[in-house]
Amino acid sequence: MVYLGPHAPIWGEPPRIRGIQEPRRGIKGKTRVASAQNYEERIMSDVADRVKKIVVEHLGVDEAKVTENASFIDDLGADSLDTVELVMAFEEEFGIEIPDDAAETIQTFGDAVKFISEAT
Amino acid sequence: MRRVVVTGLGLVTPLACGVEETWTRLLDGVSGAGKITAFDTSRVTTDYACEVKHGDGTDGTFNADDWMEPKERRKVDDFILYGIAAADQAVKDAGWTPEDEASRLRTGVMIGSGIGGLKSIEATTLMMAEKGPRRVSPFFIPGALINLISGQVSIRYGFKGPNHAVVTACSTGAHAIGDAARLIKFGDADVMIAGGAEAAICEIGIAGFNSARALSTKRSDEPEKASRPYDADRDGFVMGEGAGVVVLEEYEHAKARGAKIYAEVAGYGLSGDAYHITAPSEDGDGGYRSMQAALGHAGLEPGDIDYINAHGTSTMADTIELTAVERLLGDNAGKATMSSTKSMTGHLLGAAGAIEAIFSILAIRDQVAPPTINLDNPAVETPLDLAANKKVERKIDVALSNSFGFGGTNASVIFRKV
């Protein structure tokens, strides 16, 4: 057996080198802990803006109507096909996959923002 | 037998959006052809067509916002948008937007298309190849299905009578009007919204008709000269898009509400060629039999026909139709005028029979036959007046409109002055 050294790519994947990655994670983690609340809020508000834009565009509703508890079907005039399309648009925008059973739980604007914030 | 009359008209054509806007241009001999703007034509042989001119709605342009909200429009193919626009014009022209349930139950819709949502099928397939099936819109299927114009129109106005859609290639529009009239005659409805729509000017549509050797290919430099029925230099049809819709109504029903009556649907004939998938039978027998059947139902003689709106696509089939018409009219051929308005509108496929029915009706209303433009060097000698390059003002009490489609499906509709 030929010794290729500790960093040799044995099965194609680049080797993960603990010694280099650990400190980086540490720094990132530290920063995040320091302003955890702000960070979460920033993520939420960024997600909310992007979700709102999609909802306004797809359902043709006034932005002011898209509130936390606004139901896509009861308050924003969507039908069942609209909600399917909305979920697809969220998947596309955020690069995530929303399984069908999870999609069924997304009934309001707030549900969507919460689900996506947790998934990203 | 119940009589059926036409009480409303609606048009979206390459000449203009609107009945009067289109008709004025048609009588002036204006061509709707031009370079294709809808897609990059660098890979296809034919780079011209008769497109609907989109704009702000002034000067006959088509403003999509006038007919459908943007959020709804996103969910349907253009053929449905055009169909809805034409239907909306027609019901308003007829003054038939009843609020009472009884009237709505007696009003049906039969608007077809030759091909349907070809543009969205093309676009969605390409998108799916790139991004996968999970990205296919839930509105793809209901936005591409042919009967969804009829569905959309019924939902918009609450029309709960027969809801149907014809699919017979280039005979669609004529069959829809004829069949809808029969539903009224038979008592299934008192009012029918009928017609056809098409929007197949996309890469796969042009490529497919190019491969079938059906389209004109030689006049990229002067597209407005490309559609030239009966001319020796014709080399195929020019594809058009748009929609034509009429309101058909039982005669007593129309009279009772004081509706404006354009004409009566006097006769309707159908036949099959049983010959070839794209070419008409060479002796023109199929077309002859559909015209003959329409005359029979109308109780008219060949000599009664004043104007014929020909199928006349600017292909070799023009002369076959002409032979059939000459055979039908016999000694009376010299008294009739026949023109092909496809010389101006191009061939609207499934909408052709509907827009041409409307031109035949307007010919009766205004006593004028629209011209066949680009007929500079006739390939035929005929006793018929082909209205070469100039409209013909004359007595028109009876007009016949022919439509023949791939598969050998023929329809003839006769309209009569009331």
Automatic annotation (TrEMBL), chain B:
* UniProt-listed CDD domains: KAS_I_II (cd00834)
Catalytic residue list: 170 (for beta-ketoacyl synthase activity)
Q: Which Gene3D superfamilies has this protein been placed in?
A: 3.40.47.10
Could you tell me the EC number(s) of this protein? 2.3.1.179
Q: Which GO terms describe its cellular component?
A: cytosol
Keyword rRNA-binding set for record: no
Q: Which GO terms describe its molecular function?
A: 3-oxoacyl-[acyl-carrier-protein] synthase activity
Q: Which UniProt keywords apply?
A: Acyltransferase, Fatty acid biosynthesis, Fatty acid metabolism, Lipid biosynthesis, Lipid metabolism, Transferase
Q: Which sequence ranges form a coiled-coil region, renumbered to this chain?
A: none
| Reactions catalysed | (9Z)-hexadecenoyl-[ACP] + malonyl-[ACP] + H(+) = 3-oxo-(11Z)-octadecenoyl-[ACP] + holo-[ACP] + CO2; a fatty acyl-[ACP] + malonyl-[ACP] + H(+) = a 3-oxoacyl-[ACP] + holo-[ACP] + CO2
Q: Where is the Ketosynthase family 3 (KS3) domain?
A: 1-417
Q: Does the keyword Acyltransferase apply?
A: yes
Pathway(s): Lipid metabolism; fatty acid biosynthesis
Biological process terms from the Gene Ontology for this record are: fatty acid biosynthetic process
Query: What biological function has been recorded for the protein in this entry?
Result: Involved in the type II fatty acid elongation cycle. Catalyzes the elongation of a wide range of acyl-ACP by the addition of two carbons from malonyl-ACP to an acyl acceptor. Can efficiently catalyze the conversion of palmitoleoyl-ACP (cis-hexadec-9-enoyl-ACP) to cis-vaccenoyl-ACP (cis-octadec-11-enoyl-ACP), an essential step in the thermal regulation of fatty acid composition.
The family this protein is said to belong to: Belongs to the thiolase-like superfamily. Beta-ketoacyl-ACP synthases family.
What PANTHER family does the record point to? 3-OXOACYL-[ACYL-CARRIER-PROTEIN] SYNTHASE 2, POLYKETIDE SYNTHASE-RELATED
Q: Can you say what this protein is called?
A: 3-oxoacyl-[acyl-carrier-protein] synthase 2
Q: Which organism is it from?
A: Rhodalgimonas zhirmunskyi
